[in-house]
Amino acid sequence: MASKLPIVKAKALEASKFLTKNGCAYYKQMLEQNKQYIQEPPTVEKCQHLAKQVFYTRLASIPGRYQAFWKELDDVKNLWKHRQELKIEDAGIAALFGLECFAWFCAGEIVGRGFTITGYYV
């Protein structure tokens, strides 16, 4: 690990120089491209107001998402009741979806362990 320290230090210095040279131009370009999203005047009060708007808007969307969840659940129950009529394509799609969920779970576990397969740090 100590042998990698000078390499990491050199990379950090290189990145710092790059940001010092190009950071301001990139910042100005990004602001110019996204100026339609900037609220005037850019004050702390305006930011707090927008944060409250986002919070309460998301809070207000809960009933709609709740209803959509129960509708999806009813559709799944209906499919389970009529599983004899289920086509092989639909079963394949459901199996692939389950496999994808399991794969994302496994990937999350690996990331949570620090990108190790066995759980032990090397």
Automatic annotation (TrEMBL):
It comes from the Eukaryota. It is found in: Mitochondrion membrane. The keyword Membrane applies. One of its GO terms (molecular function) is proton transmembrane transporter activity. GO terms for cellular component: mitochondrial membrane; proton-transporting ATP synthase complex. Keywords: ATP synthesis, CF(0), Hydrogen ion transport, Ion transport, Membrane, Mitochondrion, Transport. The keyword Transmembrane does not apply. GO terms for biological process: proton motive force-driven ATP synthesis. Its main location: mitochondrion. Belongs to the ATPase g subunit family. This is Hydrogen-transporting ATP synthase, rotational mechanism. The lineage of its organism: Eukaryota, Viridiplantae, Streptophyta, Embryophyta, Tracheophyta. The gene is LOC102606336.
